Amino acid sequence: MKRNISPVYYGDYLQLDKILSAQSLQSTRYGEPAHDEMLFVIVHQVYELWFKQVLHELNSVIDAFAQDSIPDQALISVVHRLNRIIQIQQLMNDQISVMETMTPQQFLAFRDYLVPASGFQSIQFKRLEISLGLKREFRIDFDKQSFYSRLKDADRELLEGLEAKPSLFDLVDEWLARMPLLKFNDFDFWKYYQQATDTMLSDDRQTIVTNTTLSDTEREQELRDWQSTRDNFDALFMQENYNKLREQGKFRLSHKAMLAALFIKQYSEEPIFNLPFQVITALTEIDEKLTIWRYRHAMMVQRMLGTKIGTGGSSGHHYLKKTTESNRIFLDFFNMATFLLPKSMLPPLPDAISRYLGFYLSQGKS
Ligand code: HEM
Ligand SMILES: N[C@@H](CC(=O)c1ccccc1NC=O)C(=O)O
Fold it and tell me: Which positions are annotated as binding heme (predicted)?
């Protein structure tokens, strides 16, 4: 690495003149400055800086998955960057409590000056959602319209351009579906898996039927839930059924990707599956942390505004709470746990396959 020729000065390097003179308060334009508006502005600016860093990491991960093939070295750096995103998300979730040191009344001192701005117009947040894989058709109605009506033309065009590109979800789906692990000459893994899961489900049904503490209505409900789990299992082994449920929105991953992810989760301790397993785990964590952020933000809004409508025109708390469930992206990675078997019930892999999966570099002591 080359050494710098001219000396660097801390404040110049970080362009603090720009950052530290960028807190102009709306309240000063209309009267006495509201003391707490400074906190409100700075907290938002800090969020936007972290969004920038998260997008920087996320875009490099998207680039890696967009390549024709992804070598293990690239996956190592993908996992590293995804884990960095997770740590930043933790910070962003914790930061809600700093905002919550402002009381509702302190907020009301300057809230009216903010209309009609709101977090809806955070382009970086929307970029984050879209790049991860939130499709417009999944958004709730109010939010679908906000795309058209509440943004400046240039911002709207930028987001629409991004919606037309493959998201991280799309690329991960393709990557999983391409995995060559599912065909092993004469060993039909899924047939064995189906038998094992049949046993597990029959045991579950028996438990419901013989549970004397359940009322008739409770038992009927549990049996209905059991049947729905049974249907999901059947779909797993029959592509046509799977695709039907997928059209109804029960699954989002493609059938092939779902099977690959399940295989990876079941055999996560096999060395060649471990990195893909870490990718799946990190994406699950990112979805969970984003959902927690949405929930904490919605709670903060309830605390600040009760049931008042938002400055952006939504119903406020009610709208935000709904998005915590409807805007999930990697939900399949959570629900997949339904299909997991305990290690003791797993089909033993034939010798040739385990040898293929293992790293036979270590020879053991002789
Ligand atoms: C006093 C604190 C806050 C209140 C009362 C509040 C309130 C709201 C409300 C009511 C909405 C719905 C849009 C509307 O109709 O106005 C909203 C959306 C949003 N807010 Fe906040 N907010 C607060 C702080 C923050 C902070 C610190 C951030 C961090 C960047 C943020 C980011 C967002 C984002 C990204 C949305 C859009 C969410 C979506 O469309 O799913 N908000 N906020
Ligand atoms: N939507 C909020 C106002 C608000 O929080 C806000 C306003 C301008 C810029 C960012 C905001 N933060 C998040 O929505 C409200 O209805 O009070």
Answer: 297
Q: Is 352 a member of any domain?
A: yes
45 and 131 in a single domain? The answer is yes
Amino acid at 253: L
115-158 confidence digits (pLDDT tens):
999 999 999 999 999 999 999 888 888 877 777 778 999 999 99
CATH number at residue 92: 1.20.58.480
- Counting ligands in written order, the one closest to the CA of 120 is 1
Which domain, by its residues, includes 217?
188-240
User: Are residues 148 and 28 part of one domain?
Assistant: yes
For residue 115, give every residue at least 6 positions away whose Cβ sits within 8 Å of its Cβ, in sequence order, or none: 311
CA atoms of 325 and 322, how far apart (whole Å): 6
Angstrom distance (rounded) from CA 40 to CA 102: 9
CA 310 to ligand 1 centroid distance, Å = 8
Nearest C-alpha to atom 11 of ligand 2 is from which residue? Answer: 118
Give me ligand 2 centre to Cα 108, in Å. 11
Ligand of minimum distance to the alpha carbon of 294: 1
ipTM of the complex: 0.99
Residues in contact with ligand 1 by the CB-under-6-Å rule are: 43-44, 47, 99, 107, 118-120, 122, 125, 143, 297, 300-301, 304-305, 310-314, 316, 320, 323
**Residues 123, 130: Cα–Cα separation, whole Å:** 10
Residues 66 and 163 in one domain: yes
